[in-house]
Design brief:
Number of helices: 11
CATH class of the largest domain: Mainly Beta
Structural class: alpha+beta
Strand order of the largest sheet: 7-8-9-10-11-12-13-1-2-3-4-5-6-14-15-16
Largest sheet: 16 strands, mixed
CATH architecture of the largest domain: Clam
CATH topology of the largest domain: outer membrane lipoprotein receptor (LolB), chain A
Distance between the termini: 130 Å
Number of strands: 18
Shape: globular
Helix content: 25-40%
Radius of gyration: 39 Å
Amino acid sequence: MLSIGQERRDAVQHREMSHEKDLVPSTHRHAPGVSKRKISERVCPVIPCITKSKIFVFIKYFKNIRAVKLLILCTLSQQVLFAEAIDPESILQAFRDSYEWTNSVALNIKMYDGSSSMPDSKPEFSCVYKFYNDSGNRMCEKGVIHVTPAEEYGNLPGERFHRLYSKDLNNFSFRELQVRQEDGESFENFLYIHEDGEKAFHRDLAIGIVSAGPLLGYGRTFSTKRIPDLLTKDNVAIREEAIEGIRHCIVTASLPEGDIELWLDPDKNHVMTKCMMTKAAGKHVDIDGKLFAADRSDGIILKEKRWEVYVSEYKEQDGHYLPLHLESTEVYEYENSDPVFLKNTYTVEHFDLNPNFDALDAFVTDFSENVFVYFRKKDGTLASGFTWKDGKFLPRMDVDALEDYLLRGMAQLTRDKDAEESETSAAVTLQLRKSTEQDTSKRSQSSVFVRVAAVLFVLACGGALALYVSRKGR
């Protein structure tokens, strides 16, 4: 039996050959003993009869092929259109732009923190603090930390903290911390001054528990860079999913710092609604770029650290979507111990996208008087034995401090006697200019300067030596 395709080809050939009947020579048409049937068979072979049922089968078969082709075409078209709709660079740029509001802002933040082996533990302390950012030229965080709950620990006074960076202050950053003493009522204050101030301030944003960092796009202790600044079109994969009826762009990336999965809301300027991060020990790098590992002295071995950040509420203001409530959970997984959970909850109580920083006293240097001061140089060297007085960074002048200066100075001079310059005898001069007075509505900024000249060092050493000798002679 001929196939339907063969029948169709024979039918077409029969129609074409029937038009050539008049071309057959008359001798063939009327030759004796040759019937018209044989002549026609010679010119056009007889084809099988094409019934209605065969025509129906053919049409149905043809329609099915067209349907399959159309389905394939539609599927490919949808894939092409979907691929064209997802432009990684556009989505990542929109994600970066969703943090544009952070460039000039004043925030009032309340946060709760707790860590335990139970995921639903109560917070251990709370903090109310402010964050100011003047286009990156000046930044500040300051507030008070309270131990909770009050019924368990009593109404202890809070511990104050103050972090400040300013390009107007020789690009230094300042970080003052209060440490509660054993009596629970008194404090000892410490002030850390960093020569590489901008880098130090951003590091504090990235690692500090009491910090606006998570609201600004940092993953705490994940990297010194913000998450949107870590991602490029070359290191991400993006897909679109409907999660609980809401369209999301899912961004995944495997970086040296760890693995990231982001949920972005394309209907809200691609703001982040959820972020999950993982850092595996022995595989990824830590915040300083070293191999991530945190084996404890008691023999407990860290396996991995996981983060889950969830922004549960946004509000729209001036074309921006601002995070009102953020929850962060960090899980430390150990090979030979129970996991440890660190939970932080951040609530932004007030946004000001056009702040008057002078009226807010946002960047004043009102550090505690006579606080212990440590100075961190760009090369990592830490100098101690200084104090803060009248807005000045000065060496401590009490007897014990001067004796310590003398002993350390003499030891350093002995070690570096062949060096061209001794680091100890080098003068450290830090002059921070007074800001000029503004109109009566503006507040003048505290002047800050530090001068430790070589002459002062020599005089101090001489005085210390005299005191030291007189004290030993008693």
